[in-house]
Amino acid sequence: MWGPLSDEVISGCKRHLENLLKAPVTEEWLAGLHDEAPANKELYRDPEHGFVLLAHTEPAGLFRPPHDHGRGWVMYAVQRGEIEMRTYARIDEPDGSVRLVRRDSTLLRPGQVQVYLPGDIHDTRCMVGPALLYRFTERDLKKEDKVEHRVARFVAQNGVWTLGAP
Fold first, then answer.
1. Burial of residue 112 (number of CB atoms within 10 Å: 0-12, 13-18, 19+)
2. Is residue 26 part of a domain?
3. 17 and 113 in contact (C-beta within 8 Å)?
4. What is the DSSP code (8-state) at residue 164?
5. Residue 166 binned pLDDT confidence (cut-offs 50, 70, 90)
6. Please, which contacts does 99-107 make with residues 24 or more away whose CB atoms are closer than 8 Å?
7. Please, are residues 17 and 134 in contact by the beta-carbon 8 Å criterion?
8. 108 located within any domain
């Protein structure tokens, strides 16, 4: 089912993540994640297609400012805890400045999956923790960010989210 971005690829990947979220905590690998509580752990990297599945444990209150995922798309799946995810529209002003306008907010609870496509901007805040979430990315986002510098990150200036330094 893997291929270029399409409705079928997104729905298939989302379905797989929803099934993964149904795994009982008694399974050894999942119990290990609960005990280990890794901030960031790679669970799988596909050698042929390059997609990556990661596990993240986040404490209550952890906030990740608005960002996009470059050319990539990503899915977040909550296994334990609650994560608020707010989305934004990027506004390019005539003077060349950039600001964000908040679009909406979603509270992800255990068993739920959220999809972000290329160009989507969002932030995350752990509302109930520790939260355990999976992040499925269609490519290595570390490379997208640190090597190719394609990830946009935003900073607050005078109460407005604006484009941060590259």
1. middle
2. yes
3. yes
4. P
5. low
6. 99/160, 99/161, 99/162, 100/66, 100/154, 100/160, 100/161, 100/162, 107/82, 107/83
7. yes
8. yes
Pairing status of strand 74-92 against strand 63-67:
unpaired
Range of the domain at 117: 7-88+102-151
Would you say 117 and 69 are in contact if contact means Cβ atoms under 8 Å apart? no
CA 132 – CA 58 distance, rounded (Å): 7
pLDDT of residue 152: 87
Q: CA 65, CA 119: separation in Å to the nearest integer?
A: 15
Q: Cβ–Cβ contacts within 10 Å for residue 134, how many?
A: 19
pLDDT digits (tens, 9 = 90+) for 91-105: 999 999 999 999 999
The domain total for the chain is 1
Cα 166 from Cα 88, distance rounded (Å): 19
- Tell me the pTM: 0.91
Burial-class residue 148 by CB neighbours within 10 Å (0-12, 13-18, 19+). Answer: exposed
